[in-house]
């Protein structure tokens, strides 16, 4: 009966709609069938997928509850400050600082003549001297003001360091400067003195990113951190990423449009980002790019973003 009132055009549209619906139903049926076959062959597959769905639901619920709480209480969403360490927080390279400070010392050469992943670097009885030399490494201009501001606003600013240095150097330097409390977490290569009394540095993690060195992909670290924070109900209003090197490019691709990537002026990251911005097919860089020369530039940007 309805067909009598249809014009040829609307009849054609109805036919297209019907065919699309039919193909969609067939596709869904096939996917369902494949899923059932997989579940039948491997009961763990069923268990894992169900567990995955439950966790996703819980996460979504937590996020929604958190959003409602923030809206109701007027609580400000947090900002995340991410730092590279060498040539960003400190104005030098912690891996090469030792030899340049101890030319007369065999330790300096032995300690750092190889990349951290090569393992053995120096005898432990010289540890106290290595530590005292490392503690003299200068901070980048304005960085102490920036870290002081972060320390004073810990309720609204989280701060992490992602670095290809190592846990011992970063811990010594932050501890000596009194800024350890400003930084919530440090993600870097774990270091320790082994049984033979030599310093041993291992990979931070293993990953499948073909753009980064085998020991560390800063993007994977940042993605995981953001995901874990989201699981705990913390979502960031804005993420700032400050760095200088080539390995700081990969993490910029997981930043959103409202985030800010801050490359140090005149350093590799700035050049790589400029090249990326010129590319027409550039889809990986969504964040705003703001170069900096001193920590004060970063501080101004951070303060401006926190204005109501
Ligand atoms: Mg660096
Ligand atoms: Zn990577």
From TrEMBL:
GO MF terms, alphabetically ordered: metal ion binding; phosphatase activity
A family per Pfam: Put_Phosphatase
Keyword field: Hydrolase, Magnesium, Membrane, Metal-binding, Transmembrane, Transmembrane helix
Cofactor(s) the protein requires to work: Mg(2+)
Membrane spanning stretches: 16-37
The keyword Transmembrane helix appears for this protein: yes
Listed InterPro entries: HAD-like_sf (IPR036412), HAD_hydro_PyrdxlP_Pase-like (IPR006384), HAD_sf (IPR023214), Pase_PHOSPHO-typ (IPR016965)
Presence of keyword Transmembrane helix: yes
Family: Belongs to the HAD-like hydrolase superfamily. PHOSPHO family.
PANTHER family: PHOSPHATASE, ORPHAN 1, 2 (PTHR20889), PYRIDOXAL PHOSPHATE PHOSPHATASE PHOSPHO2 (PTHR20889:SF1)
NCBIfam families in the cross-refs: DKMTPPase-SF, HAD-SF-IB
Name this polypeptide is given: Uncharacterized protein
Organism from which the protein derives: Etheostoma spectabile
């Amino acid at each position: 009966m309805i067909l009598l009132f249809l014009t040829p055009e609307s009849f054609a549209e109805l036919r297209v709609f019907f065919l699309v619906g039919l193909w969609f139903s067939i596709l869904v049926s096939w996917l369902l069938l494949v899923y059932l076959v997989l579940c039948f062959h491997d009961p763990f597959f069923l268990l894992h997928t169900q567990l995955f769905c439950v966790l996703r639901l819980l996460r979504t619920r937590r996020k929604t509850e958190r959003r409602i709480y923030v809206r109701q209480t007027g609580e400000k969403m947090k900002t995340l400050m991410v730092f590279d360490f060498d040539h960003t927080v400190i104005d030098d390279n912690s891996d090469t600082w030792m030899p340049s400070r101890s030319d007369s010392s065999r330790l300096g050469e032995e300690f750092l003549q190889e990349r951290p992943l090569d393992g053995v670097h120096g005898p432990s009885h010289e540890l106290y001297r290595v530590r005292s030399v490392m503690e003299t490494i200068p901070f980048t201009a304005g960085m102490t003001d920036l870290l002081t501001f972060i320390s004073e606003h810990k309720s609204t600013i989280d701060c992490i360091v992602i670095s290809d240095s190592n846990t011992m150097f970063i811990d010594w330097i932050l501890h000596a400067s009194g800024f350890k409390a400003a930084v919530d977490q440090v993600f870097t290569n774990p270091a320790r003195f082994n049984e033979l009394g030599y310093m041993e540095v291992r990979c931070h993690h293993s990953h499948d990113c073909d753009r980064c060195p085998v020991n560390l992909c800063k993007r994977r670290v940042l993605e995981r951190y953001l995901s874990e924070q989201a699981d705990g109900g913390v979502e960031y209003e804005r993420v700032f990423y400050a760095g200088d090197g080539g390995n700081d490019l990969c993490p910029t691709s997981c930043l959103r449009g409202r985030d800010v990537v801050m490359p140090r002026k005149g350093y590799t990251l700035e050049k790589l980002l400029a090249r990326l911005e010129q590319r027409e097919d550039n889809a990986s860089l969504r964040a705003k790019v703001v170069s900096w020369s001193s920590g004060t530039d970063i501080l101004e940007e951070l303060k401006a973003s926190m204005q109501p």
